[in-house]
Amino acid sequence: MIQKSFASDNYAGIHPLILKAIGDANCGHAKAYGADNYTAEAIERFKQHFGNDIAVYFVTTGTAANVLSLSALLKPYEGVICAETAHINVDECGAPERYTGCKLLTIPTNDGKLTVDAIKAQLINLGDQHKVQPKVISISQTTECGTLYTQAELLEITKYAHANNMYVHMDGARLSNAAASLNLGLAALTRDVGIDVLCFGGTKDGMMLGEAVVFLNLELAQGFKYIRKQGMQLVSKMRFISAQFSALLTDDLWLKNANHANAMAQLLAREIAQISEIKLNRSVQANAVFAILNPNLIKILQDKYYFYVWNEDLNEVRWMTSWDTTPADIAEFVAFIKTSLRKNQV
User: Fold this and answer.
1) Which of 47, 100, 313, 315 is deepest in the core (most CB within 10 A)?
2) In this structure, which topology does domain 253-344 adopt according to CATH?
3) 214: closest CA among 53, 81, 30?
4) Which of 79, 64, 82 is nearest to 143 (CA)?
5) For the segment 43-91, what is each residue's pLDDT rounded down to a tens digit?
6) Which of 68, 73, 71, 70 is nearest to 57 (CA)?
7) Which pLDDT value is given to residue 175?
8) Which whole-number Å values give the CA distances from 15 to 12, 176, 222, 262, 266, in the listed order?
């Protein structure tokens, strides 16, 4: 039997209801390039959650969603303010800078979250023709450090951005986990607090593949269909992405999956807290658990379970739970940790 991974929630398989939706869509012929009924239905599902005056475009990956949405907001001399840990800065191989031609203006943080005070320092050269001009603030919800922005924190950032003629982009690869943790709807953390463009993640919440670029500020969507095409993300058989989103956004499947993943992270954290040789390094706010381990123990555990070392200097690891993580998976993992500690005296 293949061991469950704690590396990332995108290691998990496809939720059965979403897999069924793909199968159901695999019936006969349908118009290509999003002109099909499945895509129309999926867009209607998004409108039920985010409001009618939005524009929704489906793409295959989170990197594509982030890069293309940022492309719609920027001129070549403008920049994107983001946390130093942001996915667009660390894990997208320079794609945002290459394809937008714009500079990322990074801010060091302890918890992955931007603040207005930190953002202000990036605006001191506004109007200086020698300097990159900040135009977009990009935030991740949840952050790469597993932390959450509250409604109040988001509203403070968007108000400051709009007052200074900037837009706010949200990398919502794990927005579902954030909404579940905060017990809020999807619109409450996006549209209602002034987010301009959202990249809504499906892959990490039970889908096979697919992300959605959601323009909550409709004016910014002008021309995006051409940007998507030039960006090689106009999928011909789009119905197979759309059908997944319809399933995910029906009967709160997105919420059920996220709640379960979050609950499994809390369970894992409680079990790990009882092991004196391991230190939990960050509060568990969604479905990520960060811990500091003996480096020899890390090697032993990674021989059986795959997960990422988050900070090599601290020997900090990240364990992610997903929609299909079970209490039995966690019990087995924790038992293996205890056995390894006992046998190897690390």
Assistant:
1) 100
2) Aspartate Aminotransferase, domain 1 (3.90.1150)
3) 53
4) 82
5) 999 999 999 999 999 999 999 999 999 999 999 999 999 999 999 999 9
6) 68
7) 98
8) 9, 15, 34, 16, 21
Position 303, amino acid: D
The mean pLDDT value for 315-328 works out to 98
- Would you give the DSSP letter of residue 250? S
Q: pLDDT tens across 249-280, in order? A: 999 999 999 999 999 999 999 999 999 999 99
d(CA 156, CA 158): 6
Residue ranges in 110-170 assigned as alpha helix (H): 116-120, 151-163
What is the topology classification, in CATH, of domain 16-248?
Aspartate Aminotransferase; domain 2 (3.40.640)
- Nearest 5°: the CA angle 232, 62, 83 is 125
- Three-state SS for 59-78 is ECCHHHHHHHHHHCCCCCCE
Which residue bears the tokens 């398989």?
Answer: 13
Q: How confident is the model at residue 345, as a pLDDT?
A: 74
Q: Does the structure show a pLDDT above 90 at 313? A: yes
In what order do the strands lie in the sheet containing 316-320? 279-280, 288-292, 316-320, 308-311
Q: Phi first, then psi: what are they for 10, rounded to 5°? A: -90, 5
Q: Is a pLDDT exceeding 90 seen at residue 219?
A: yes
Fold matches, 16-248 and 253-344: no
Of 217, 149, 139, 216, which Cα lies nearest the Cα of 179?
Answer: 149
> Cα–chain-centroid distance for residue 3?
24
Domains of the chain, by residue range, sit at 16-248, 253-344
Q: What is the average pLDDT across 117-125?
A: 95
pTM over 0.90: yes
Give the DSSP H/E element, type plus range, for residue 340: helix 327-344
CA separation for the pair 256, 252 (Å, rounded): 6
